[in-house]
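Q: For a teaching handout, I want to show students what a protein-ligand complex looks like in token form. Below are the inputs, and the small molecule is iron/sulfur cluster. Please produce the holo structure.
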Amino acid sequence: MTTKKNPRPGPKAAPTTPPRTPARILELLEEHYPEAWCTLDFENPYQLLAATILSAQCTDERVNLTTPALFRRYPDPASLARAAIEELEGLVRPTGFFRNKAKNLKSAAGMIVDRFGGRVPDRMEELILLPGVARKTANVVLGAAFGVPGVVVDTHVKRVSARLGWTKSSNPDQIEQDLMALWPRERWTKLGHQVIAHGRSICAARKPRCPSCFLGELCPYPQKEKE
Ligand code: SF4
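A: Here is the structure, written as tokens, with iron/sulfur cluster included.
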């Protein structure tokens, strides 16, 4: 039997700064925003789709004030598809860009009736065929109404992800791909809402509150700003 000599201890490894892998950041986001979820009010996929279309360039609070009357008047895609456009414009006016939004809502409802049997589709490839629906809106609907994991890339996710060094791209589709590669699939939907919550409360566009941010030590942005 041969015995192996103990390997000579090598030089001590230099202390390293904690790796900026997202794992710890994801843990902290879960700790700080355990309840983060879609802040639009809805009772079914149709309502969430309409509310998400209306939320472009508008706060969720304002959308939530606008949609009850809209859903009372048009409770399903079939009634929305038949809407008189002037009346519809009047109902969605408070959310801004009301002409375009009314047109998209009516056309999307028409397509849902004609092509999808009156039911909001639950697949990305079909959702993005609807007028006014790009991947962001589709991911909101898939995640919150159908439970299909999806990464929502809105203005907050774009900004916070860039600052955290999670993406180098400014293209939403590429950012979505970068985050999908970085985040565990089962957490895609909730993490999107947690990052949005962080962007709203701490990592604001103009004045991020880095000195008091719980991600400060893991985020490259404050250092970059000093350089
Ligand atoms: S440290 Fe600053 S830039 Fe980084 S996530 Fe926090 S607030 Fe945003």
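A: Two things your students might notice: Residues 1-20 have pLDDT under 50 and may be disordered. Residues 98-116 form the longest helix (19 residues).
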